């Protein structure tokens, strides 16, 4: 049995950009990624004790091979030139934290 791969992604949102980030993710980024085959499990907002907002989301892939193929479709030249600059106007680039997690069979 092959277990699915889940990415847990966490980004620190630049102060004052939370509303803009959430709206952009919902209206543009998530639909684009879904159109390329990404399965978005869920999205979350966490505010730490200092009032800093973090966007946390989970994406699921059938296996590492499908993950690589979807990445190639998603993160193309258009992404690099058009989307990436927008991303880093709203989140702290050095804050990106991605963990690959796998479900446990109990």
CATH architectural grouping: 2-Layer Sandwich
**Largest sheet: spatial strand order:** 2-3-1-4
Beta-strand percent range: 25-35%
Write down the domain tally: 1
Q: Give the SSE string.
A: EHEEHHE
Q: N- to C-terminal separation?
A: 14 Å
CATH class: Alpha Beta
Overview of the molecule:
- The protein has helices spanning 18-35, 64-74, 77-87, and strands at 5-12, 39-47, 53-61, 97-101.
- The protein has 106 residues and is an alpha+beta fold.
- The protein has one domain: Alpha-Beta Plaits (2-Layer Sandwich).
- A four-stranded antiparallel beta sheet has the order 2-3-1-4.
- Strand 2 (39-47) and strand 3 form a beta hairpin.
Provide the descriptors you would attach to this structure in a database record.
106 residues; alpha+beta; Alpha-Beta Plaits; four-stranded antiparallel sheet; 3 helices; 4 strands; 38% helix
Compact overview of the structure:
By secondary structure, this protein is an alpha+beta fold. It contains three helices and four strands.
Describe the secondary structure blueprint for this structure.
Blueprint: E1 5-12, H1 18-35, E2 39-47, E3 53-61, H2 64-74, H3 77-87, E4 97-101
Antiparallel strand pairs: 1-3, 1-4, 2-3
